[in-house]
Each structure stands twice: as structure tokens, then as C-alpha cells.
Design brief:
With 263 residues, this protein is mainly beta. It has helices at 2-18, 247-262; strands spanning 20-28, 48-49, 55-56, 90-92, 97-105, 112-122, 126-127, 141-144, 148-149, 156-157, 176-179, 186-187, 198-199, 204-211, 218-230, 235-237, 239-243. The termini are far apart.
């Protein structure tokens, strides 16, 4: 009997150790994963959210009459989509951008995240400054989806906090803090929640999108803070990605190499 208890305890420890929440990116247009309309990738919401909790035009997924809104899910990546490392990052092609995802891996059913901070940094050197749009050298442009559908007969919202049009500066930060006090947050559930950009099969949520100059810089993305409203957090895992240089940049780098060798 004592041996059986020991074995069961070991299995419990293994299960806990393997429970992970990870963030990773996928490249567009290399893959078609992401929003239904990729032109809306850098729109956090079409609503206005005030500090007192009031919302206007809160129809990100659909309007009151069922007409489609702009923040709708298209195709989700597979559960084994690569995270990338600083040595072998996910590659974003010239002219493309990356979608940001969160995945529950072996987490207990029903656990719910109500606080999350995601940070993008240069591999090994520190946080990358954010840009308001069209990032320049040494900058990135991030966007995180509010998923505000409080105007519907069955109101739902992913994250609380203000959202101020037209620029929505609250949702283009790095690092980005996301909080759900009254809002729903993100839950590990087998129930379909299209309004929350949630894939119940592989337990993946679409968090946002990121753009950067095509200069070959390598970035890592990590969860730096997390809080659960139900359940216990497991481990955390991040990934890495690289925006490939434009062909002209590659040519210049090649010419520079030739000049160095001639000298």
C-alpha cells in the first residue's frame, strides 16, 4: 500500500511539473493562422472603454443584430506549433508580421487567468521600446485584443481597462499588462468561445500581433507575470522570433563582407 501511494505521488508531481502556459508567435503570411481578416490584426478593439467601466460600441465580434465585427477568429495553429529559440527562432518574412498566442499545456481543466503580463525583448539584452505605429530601428509595434462584446445580449469581455480611440495607446505597450477583474479573462475550457478568440481543441487563445523592422533582429517573448482567479499556475514558457532582412539589406551585408575580406 505504501508503495502504491508513493507511485501515485510521483505521478502527481510529474503532472504538475508538465503543466505549462506558453506564449509563442506564428508568421503571417507564411501561415494563414490568426484573425479572419488579417487587415484588422493591429486593431485592439472598436469600442471605447472608460475608467468607470462603461463601454461604447462594444461589438468586436459581432453587433447586436449579428453582423460580423472586425475581431473574429480565422484559423488556429496546431497544438505543437514551434515556440522558437534565440538560436533557432520562428522566422517572419519581409512584409509580414507575427500573431501572438497563449496556450494551456497540460493545465488543469477550468483554470482561469485574470492577470497577465507579456514582454518582448531582444535576445539576451533587454526590453524593446514600443512604437505607436510603423516601428523604426530598435522598436516594435505590438497590439493586444480586448475582445469587448459588452454590447451584446450576452455580454462578454476578455480584459478590463480603458480603451481610448482612435489610437488605443493602452493596448500597444511593451510589456503589456492585461487584467480581468470584472471581465472574463482566459480559461482552460473545452467550450468554444469564438468571441474570445479561443480554440477549445488545442487550448490556444489569440492574444495579439507584433510588427518590427525587417533587419534580422531576434526577439524573445515571455510571460513575466501571471495570476489565476481559479486553479494554481503551472510553469511558464516563451519563445523567440526573427524578422528577416529585406533582400536589399542582405545584399548590403554581402557587399560589406566582400569589402572586409578585400581589406
Amino acid at each position: 500500500m505504501k508503495k502504491l501511494v508513493t507511485i501515485l505521488a510521483m505521478f502527481a508531481m510529474v503532472g504538475t511539473a508538465s503543466a505549462t502556459v506558453r506564449v509563442f508567435v506564428t508568421p503571417y503570411p507564411t501561415f494563414d493562422y490568426g484573425l479572419e481578416n488579417h487587415a484588422n490584426a493591429f486593431i485592439p478593439t472598436i469600442s471605447t472603454s472608460y475608467a468607470n467601466g462603461d463601454n461604447e460600441n462594444a461589438y468586436d465580434y459581432s453587433d447586436y443584430y449579428g453582423a460580423p465585427g472586425p475581431i473574429r477568429p480565422g484559423t488556429f495553429p496546431p497544438g505543437d506549433a514551434p515556440s522558437g529559440t534565440c538560436e533557432d527562432p520562428v522566422e517572419i518574412p519581409e512584409g509580414g508580421f507575427a500573431y501572438i498566442w497563449l496556450q494551456f499545456q497540460n493545465e488543469a481543466k477550468g483554470v482561469k487567468i485574470n492577470g497577465l503580463m507579456v514582454e518582448i525583448s531582444f535576445c539576451g539584452t533587454g526590453v524593446v521600446p514600443e512604437s505607436v505605429e510603423n516601428p523604426g530601428p530598435g522598436q516594435i509595434y505590438t497590439n493586444y485584443y480586448v475582445c469587448n462584446n459588452m454590447g451584446l445580449p450576452q455580454p462578454n469581455k476578455r480584459w478590463d481597462g480603458t480603451a481610448t480611440p482612435p489610437a488605443y495607446p493602452e493596448w500597444h505597450n511593451n510589456p503589456q499588462t492585461m487584467v480581468a477583474i470584472v471581465a472574463f479573462g482566459l480559461q482552460n475550457t473545452a467550450v468554444a468561445q469564438l468571441w474570445n478568440l479561443w480554440d477549445p481543441t488545442n487550448r490556444i487563445a489569440l492574444l495579439g500581433a507584433v510588427a518590427a523592422p525587417y533587419d534580422g533582429s531576434v526577439y524573445e517573448i515571455n510571460i513575466t507575470n501571471i495570476n489565476y482567479s481559479s486553479g494554481e499556475p503551472g510553469g511558464l514558457a516563451g519563445g523567440a522570433f526573427k524578422f528577416l532582412p529585406e533582400p536589399a539589406s542582405l545584399l548590403l551585408l554581402g557587399l560589406a563582407g566582400l569589402l572586409i575580406r578585400r581589406r
